[in-house]
């Protein structure tokens, strides 16, 4: 791994380097050790696990340091700006304790044969347990070149995916994560919130226009499950919907998804309960939720940790900007574990589901020209 941030990765400095869609590149860093209390009102960068069954905590990186780094008229590189922020804020007051990234990932990598067996387990479960949908995910292993540099990595995905939440998050003692998520979990400001139903995936061919894409029965039904779930959560919390879009096709790099927006009124005090009920949605878990969770934890051969969790800022003005942690990877010293998944229903065909996860993995791989096994 390159040396741009190596010194600071070895120190106990929690930080998030990120760029939300339509926003500037931003660096948030904390001067003290991480705390693991789940407090939705706490200002800072939130990084939450897939579910409460995971063994990793909901983390909030306090914005002790909070800097916008984008300045197109500057002669300094992004690396120079990041290093300047760290030197100015941490070199004179840095923890003597250090920690090292593990050299290689320990997650289990699934072959197609094992994948096919697990998908058939899902299909059998659906028939006998009144379950409509569950997500099955797997991991691809990435091998880094000796000169792999984190900041260059971030710059490439930031330029390639202007509609995604792109990030690099360092949690000392827990791990280093990066990704480019196309999916909003929840936005909130001044009593109004927005969430989206995002499901269904297909590849966009070079000559195709997004608006000309046609969707199959499986994808339409999968998306409708998510939309119905969100609608039900809004209504059972007695919230007023003020705008609901029709389903439409949304582009995410070389892929397209079915998407639908919901805008509704909600008090800030209601947000923690609503987010806990909303997450994880059927888009990353399944339906019914608890049965889908049982199936996922019985079948997937690894812990999801922060994959399919959520991340983003709670601002000083109480605005919230959370995204689902998709198209992401956990970074080690020489390798990374890239997480990809897809929705499995009674109509799923293992070969097609495998192809979908291969397509999703290219969100990061194509930009970076990385080797996988």
Q: How would you briefly describe this protein structure?
A:
It is built from eight helices and 19 strands. It is of the alpha+beta class and 373 residues long. The longest helix is centred in the middle third of the chain and has 20 residues.
Which short descriptors sum up this protein?
Anthranilate synthase; 19 strands; ten-stranded antiparallel sheet; 373 residues; nine-stranded antiparallel sheet
CATH class: Alpha Beta
SS class: alpha+beta
What form results from the Cα inertia axes? Answer: globular
Count of extended strands: 19
Biggest β-sheet, characterized?
10 strands, antiparallel
The CATH superfamily is known as Anthranilate synthase
The Cα radius of gyration reads: 20 Å
Number of helices: 8
* Terminal residue distance: 19 Å
Q: Which runs of at least 5 residues are low in confidence (pLDDT < 50)?
A: none
CATH architectural designation:
4-Layer Sandwich
What is the share of helical residues?
25-40%
If you consult CATH, what is the topology?
A: Anthranilate synthase
Order of helices and strands: HEEEEEHHEHEEEEHEEEHEHEEEEHE
Give the amount of beta strand, in percent: 25-35%
What's the number of structural domains? 1
The overall average pLDDT, rounded, is 88
Q: How is this structure best described in words?
A:
This protein has helices at residues 6-9, 78-90, 112-129, 150-160, 217-236, 271-278, 289-299, 350-368, and strands at residues 15-19, 26-29, 44-48, 59-61, 65-68, 133-143, 165-171, 175-181, 184-189, 192-203, 241-244, 248-252, 255-265, 286-287, 310-314, 320-324, 328-331, 335-345, 371-372. The chain is an alpha+beta fold. It has a single domain, classed as 4-Layer Sandwich (Anthranilate synthase), CATH 3.60.120. The protein is globular, with a radius of gyration of 20 Å.
